[in-house]
Amino acid sequence: MAEHNDTNRETVERTTIVETDRGGGGGVWAVVLLIIVLLALAYIFRDSLGLGGGDTEISVPDKIEVNVN
User: Fold this and answer.
1) Alpha carbon distance 38, 42 (integer Å)
2) 42 in Cβ contact with 49 (< 8 Å)
3) How confident is the model at residue 57 (pLDDT cuts 50, 70, 90)?
4) Is 25 left (phi over 0), alpha (psi -120 to 50) or beta?
5) What is the per-residue pLDDT for 10?
6) Percent of residues in the chain assigned helix, strand, coil, to nearest 5
7) Percentage of the chain exceeding pLDDT 90
8) What is the average per-residue pLDDT within 9-37?
9) Cβ-based neighbours of 51, under 8 Å, separated by 6 or more
10) Contacts of 19 (CB under 8 A, 6+ apart)
11) CA–CA distance, 69 with 66 (Å, rounded to integer)
């Protein structure tokens, strides 16, 4: 059987570099784009959503009868 000899192994150091300078702004643009799309869809479907249509009629009676007993 082979013996395990740790003295013959060399130590290898590794360094991992993570760059964060680029990117990171994509989430902000995604939120802005999502808000714009939602506002556009609300504008397109505003009649079916009940968000202000041109069919609103207000009628005020000329005379109100009040009975006091």
Assistant:
1) 6
2) yes
3) confident
4) alpha
5) 77
6) 40, 0, 60
7) 23
8) 84
9) 42
10) none
11) 10
Tell me the two tokens of residue 25.
Answer: 């702004």
**Six token digits for residue 42:** 């609300």
Backbone φ and ψ for 50, nearest 5 degrees, come out as 80, 30
Residue 19 has pLDDT above 60, yes or no: yes
Q: Alpha-carbon distance 40 to 33, whole Å?
A: 11
Residue type, 24: G
Q: In angstroms, rounded to a whole number, what is the distance separating the alpha carbons of residues 27 and 33?
A: 10
The residue written with tokens 């506002």 in the block is: 39
Q: Say if residue 45's pLDDT is above 70.
A: yes
Half-sphere exposure of 9 (CA within 13 A, CB side): 6
